[in-house]
Specification:
This protein is an all-beta fold and 678 residues long. Strands 1-45-44-43-42 form a five-stranded mixed β-sheet, with no helix packed on it. The chain has a five-stranded mixed β-sheet with strand order 2-49-48-47-46, with no helix packed on it. The termini are far apart.
Amino acid sequence: MVAHAPALALGLILAAAAFAAEAYEALPVKPLPLRGLKTLEVESVGITGGRPWITPLETFQVPGTTEWRHLFFYKKQGKNERTSWYVTLDLQSGEMKHHPALPGLEVLPKAWVGGKFYMGINLPGHLLAYDPATDMIEDLGPAFEKSQSIFKMSSGPDGTIALGGISPPEVSLFDPQTKTFRRYGKIGANHGYCYSIHQDERFIYGAARGKDPWHLVIVDKKTGEHRLALTSPTETFMEVSGGSLRIMGGEAIPPRLLKDGQVLPMPPSTTTPPRRTPPPPPPEVLYDDTPLFEGKKEMTLHFQNPADRKEWKRAEIAVPLAGETLNAACILRGGRIAAIGNAYNPAVVFDIATGEGRQAPMPSISSRCLLALDDVVYVTGYPGTVVMRWDTSKPTTPLTALPGRPAVKEDDAQANPRLVARYPMTPTSGGHIGAQAFQGADGILYIIARRHRHHRGFDVVWYDPATGAKGEIEDGGVLDHLQVAWATLMDEGRRLAISTYVEPNDQLPPGPAPESARLILLDLAARKYVAQHVPFPGLRVLAGIAETTPGKLVGLAPDREGKTTFVYRFDVTGGRVEQVVRYEGHVQGTPALGGLPGAGHDFTLGPDGKVWTGTAYAAEQSAALRIAPDSLAVTALGGVRGNAFRYVFLDGRVYLTGAAHLRRLLAVTAGPVPTPRP
């Protein structure tokens, strides 16, 4: 339980800065050296943190035969690529047919109509038709005038297909006989979705959803006339399907019958529908990407033999690992590098000399940060601030069961990676996102846990790798109305310095928010907050900090307008600002306000004794920067593609995250580079 007593009751030292507001506000502004910046030469190393983006679509029996096929699509360059490659797998022979590339981000609605399999595409809003008789896919073209997504479809008694779109919520009708669309335009008012759709012989019924109340719109297929049939409050849910209208939530009305362009009372059922025996399920097809985790180039499909469902067959497919941006990286024993990617992508580890590596799934978390203890990588992120432990010296265990291979639950003692900790969150404790992680001198892992989405503020939580114990550090109200901007270890891992910005929190008991951002010191051995400092009275945002020499921090503080940044050196022992230099723009990308420490540019001490960071200066372009701790002079090393990156230093070489592969700087080093062995 995190107490909320006044901070001074805990004996904290609240030190006013020696640097007066009048002094720092009067400082001249120096330009950042970004003009004429040349792009740094880089080379990609290692393997990507991406995964194979494969999506199963349908397992079906070819009409009029005993043959079974499985249809799926995959991506070559990531989930956001607006091109897809389609493949049919013959379940009898195991042969695969690769179809030509087709436009589209993904398949949304699907339906069998007239013996063909129709697929509604998202971005662009095209309709595709797969003909099992010829094993061919045809692009039938755009379904709408403006909408770029087919969101819903409904087949009619005449064999036509009604289609509903997104942004705007348009409606159209496709005739498979003539292969033509009749486009009826937008339905509703300020709506974004045709959220559900139904058609009968003469009319199309579309439910329009958006910020305005729901609209049920009826379209005359022959004349194209639109008619608003009824509305329902935004907080309800409207669905049209199978000839009926349902409205749920709020003051919901009973189900209604949709017939002949009218909304009618639902007649009472007088007959018992005949009991139908469901058809047997299709043969099962399982996707196995564990070969990719061991560094192979193919993944495996396991599928049942249609003639004997007890027999399993295998087929391999070379699917590229769709590159996803690597967020952070760390050095393991022996000079190997581990890295994590965006969202719920795998972690990777590889030998920097050979580029060969392995992957490991991180199913429970969208990774944000990681750290290495010898061969073991600890990864944290969200939701709920979870910690995964990956022993890179051991094989990866499977999460899904395959023929002859049981699954291993992620929290099982034998799992690798293994879920070792999960922290709860309330409005005043815990966190939703593990934003930064450190190992203290005591061997304990300390994680900055931000309360995000529903709650404000942050905590520091801990996990003991030796015992598995975990907990939170009580703050006594010290962290109230503050949000973490950056943190760094001090005193050889005995203390943690936390840079914050003001974030008023109405979820706390009544009390004023501080007027100024604070530097807070946490004694890790005692697990107590022991001091807080105000470097710049009146400034509500502090950003990156790094310990450069014992007891000395170099940090950043954007001004009130966010147009300049104060680069300062702070004496933690004396509790005073020693030096300040003011620069135009943002030295560390953008102010921490509203962002995550794990989502922006790095701010870290390099092996050369200088602070390495970066800033965005153009679209998808950043500058790699270096700060001299003695003079606070900022040097621009060159331009780098991307909006955010982290540094990794190994044998004098400098590596960057922020792209699908780790990037090694060719002309920039951070110390002596060993001479290559002959």
